[in-house]
Amino acid sequence: MGRDGVSAIHKVFDWAQSSRKGLIVFIDEADAFLQKRSKEAMSEDTRAALNAFLFRTGEQSRRFMLVVASNQPEQFDWAVNDRLDQLVQFDLPGRPERERILLQYFEEHIAKPATSGARGQRLKLSNFDWVEKCAQVADITEGMSGRELSKLVIGWQVRGHQPMPLKTVC
């Protein structure tokens, strides 16, 4: 968060409180600054930002809903947990979801760019069954998140522009 973390938090909550219709304040990777105050390694800036957050969220508000996301909610300070009314866990994608994610990213990052543009088809996809390949990859990527699957496909895109054919990457 740095030195400006406290003022940034106050600005966000001032803005949220001024909303006439209500809004959702979403904080991703919230464990980065909402961690336990008992940690010795916590910087003064982070501690001050946490205290500002706790000050601004001490009472219910009809103006905004606070939603926080974390891969490590056990790292939250007890006072943060006290302010969170609901906990919702999102599991990693199952096999069918992984296949759909892989297909989506393959089409977005490889198939569309390969067949569009001024130069026409840049990669040879006509003899490549990417639907079957994505199904095979979905079988072996258990435990991977959507973000990790996205990075995998982007890696394929990079390899597709190199001399080695895409088929040999997986």
Automatic annotation (TrEMBL):
GO-annotated biological processes: mitochondrion organization
This protein's record includes keyword Coiled coil: yes
Protein keywords: Coiled coil
Domain ATPase AAA-type core: 5-91
GO molecular function: ATP binding; ATP hydrolysis activity; zinc ion binding
Protein name, per record: ATPase, AAA family
Gene3D superfamilies found in the cross-reference section: 1.10.8.60, P-loop containing nucleotide triphosphate hydrolases
SUPFAM superfamilies: P-loop containing nucleoside triphosphate hydrolases
Organism from which the protein derives: Teladorsagia circumcincta
Keyword Coiled coil belongs to the record: yes
Source species taxonomy: Eukaryota, Metazoa, Ecdysozoa, Nematoda, Chromadorea
One cellular component term from this protein's GO annotations in UniProt: mitochondrion
Xref: Pfam families: AAA (PF00004)
